[in-house]
Structures are given as C-alpha cells and as structure tokens.
C-alpha cells in the first residue's frame, strides 16, 4: 500500500494518521486530503487512483455516507470515527475495516493486514484486465471520432481535439482550430473511451486535451484556472482537491 486518500476535516486527525502510517507502512504518498462531502464527491467523480481511502464518517457538511449517493468509489475504504454506532452502515459500502478514534497502532496494522489479504490477488487480476482493456481501447477506439455536421459525417482525429464540453445535457467537441461539433455521448462515456494520457476530466463540464493547455492561473481557494489555445464557453476551473492529480497528468509524457 503506497497511495492513500484521506477524507477528514480535523487537521489534528490528519497529522496523527499521517504519522502513524509513516510508522506502520513507511513510504506513503497522500494523494489528497478532502475536508467535506462536496469536495469528496467532485474529487471521486474524476476516478482517482489510490490503494486505500481513510474516511471520517462525520464531516463539516454532513456524514460521509452521502458521498456514496452521488458517486461510485471502487477503492477500498477504512472508515474512521469517534463513535461506534455506524459500524453496520459502514460495511454496506466498499469498506475494509472500521477504526475508532483516537487511532491505535495495533488497530491500524490489523486493518492494513486485512486489506492486504483481501485484495492482493484480486488487484493483480484487475490490473491485468485494465491493461488489456486500455491497450485495446487506445489502439482501436480513440484515434478518430465520427461526428455529424448538417448532412455530413466528419472524421475528427483525436490529436486535433482541444476539449469536450457539456451544457444542458448536450456535449460538443471543439478542435484546436476552433471548430465545434455535437457529440452523441456523455462526458462520462467519453472519459471511459479517451486516452488518460492525452485527455483530463477537468470538472463536470470539461474534458481537456493536453495539447490545448496554453497556460494555468492560480485561482481563488488554491484552485487552478486553465487557459486553452482556443476560446471556451466558460472558465475551466480545477478544484483544490484535484490540483495534484492534474499537475501529475500534465507533467507525465
């Protein structure tokens, strides 16, 4: 276990968990620290990659079970709380274990050992399957997209796409030349089809191409605002929670 997501609104609890993970596991990368239900829903909508989620049940804007009503999380979860009455509800979702605060090192070790036993062979099979699917999709499905324009069908090379945008349940594709075409797929369906290396789900409205990013401005609340080489129908904002993931994507060739 190397990559961790922490959903917790108490700074002291985050510091304590980081310290205990460093002792028990060693080299751990904290992918993100999320402080609210709203922030977590937006972050997990981007399908982040991690080995485990430590999730406090009580957050500033409600209990964390609300997150699962809005988004599916397929990463194993260890719930944390100062109360024990939520144990049954916690195990209805993708939960590995349930830790009571204040954390005890032996409880954390037990939970992580359980994670290792339950997921070692399963993760390996999933990884092989994902690699095969990704290779097939990238080679067969994402090179060219057919779009309709008036009475014509036009092939658009994915290398020429600047961004996809959705508004009022309608999706449009805009090229690096500023040409726009309607697309009969949702952003969620496109996200599954497009190459992760070339395209990034910036937020609920946009999927952007790496080649279209002109520059980046630091926005309010430690967010980022993207400027593309072509005009966009609205400002593209990367939330604070997704900034690390975006930076990693932008720097990976």
Task: Please characterize this protein's 3D structure.
The protein has 253 residues and is an alpha/beta fold. It folds into 2 domains: 3-136, Rossmann fold; 144-251, LytTr DNA-binding domain (OB fold (Dihydrolipoamide Acetyltransferase, E2P)), CATH 2.40.50.1020. The protein has 7 helices and 17 strands. The protein is elongated. Mean pLDDT is 85; it is low at 130-141.
Give the tags.
2 domains; elongated; five-stranded antiparallel sheet; 17 strands; five-stranded parallel sheet; Rossmann fold; 253 residues; 7 helices; alpha/beta; single chain; OB fold (Dihydrolipoamide Acetyltransferase, E2P)
Roughly how many Å apart are the termini?
25 Å
Number of strands: 17
Order of strands in the sheet with most strands: 2-1-3-6-7
| Strand proportion | 25-35%
Name the CATH class of the largest domain: Alpha Beta
Which regions contain 5 or more consecutive residues with pLDDT less than 50?
130-141
What's the short story on this structure?
The protein has 253 residues and is an alpha/beta fold. It is 33% helix and 33% strand. It has seven helices and 17 strands.
SSE topology:
Blueprint: E1 3-7, H1 11-24, E2 29-34, H2 37-45, E3 52-56, E4 58-59, E5 62-63, H3 67-70, E6 77-81, H4 87-90, E7 95-100, H5 105-140, E8 144-149, E9 152-157, E10 161-167, E11 170-175, E12 180-183, H6 187-193, E13 199-201, E14 206-209, E15 213-219, E16 223-228, E17 236-238, H7 243-251
Parallel strand pairs: 1-2, 1-3, 3-6, 6-7
Antiparallel strand pairs: 4-5, 8-9, 10-11, 10-14, 11-12, 13-14, 15-16, 16-17
């Amino acid at each position: 276990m190397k990559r961790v997501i922490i959903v917790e609104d108490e700074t002291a609890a985050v510091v304590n968990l980081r310290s205990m993970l460093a002792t028990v596991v060693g080299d751990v990368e904290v992918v993100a620290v999320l402080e609210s239900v709203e922030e977590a829903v937006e972050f997990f909508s981007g399908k982040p990659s991690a080995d485990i989620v430590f999730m406090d049940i009580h957050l500033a804007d409600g209990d964390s079970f609300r997150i699962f009503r809005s988004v599916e999380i397929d990463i194993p979860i260890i719930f944390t709380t100062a109360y024990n009455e939520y144990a049954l509800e916690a195990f209805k979702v993708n939960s590995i274990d349930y830790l009571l605060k204040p954390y005890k090192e032996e409880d954390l070790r037990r939970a992580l050992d359980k994670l290792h036993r339950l997921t070692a062979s399963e993760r390996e099979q999933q990884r092989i399957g994902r690699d095969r699917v990704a290779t097939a999709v990238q080679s067969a499905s994402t090179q060219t997209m057919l779009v309709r324009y008036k009475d014509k069908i036009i092939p658009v090379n994915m290398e020429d796409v600047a961004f996809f945008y959705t508004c009022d349940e309608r999706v449009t594709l805009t090229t690096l030349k500023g040409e726009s075409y309607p697309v009969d797929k949702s952003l969620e369906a496109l996200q599954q089809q497009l190459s992760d290396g070339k395209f990034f789900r910036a937020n609920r409205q946009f999927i952007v191409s790496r080649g279209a990013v002109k520059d980046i401005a630091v926005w309010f609340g430690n967010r980022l605002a993207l400027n593309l080489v072509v005009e966009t129908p609205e400002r593209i904002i990367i939330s604070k929670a997704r900034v690390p993931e975006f930076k990693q994507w932008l720097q990976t060739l």
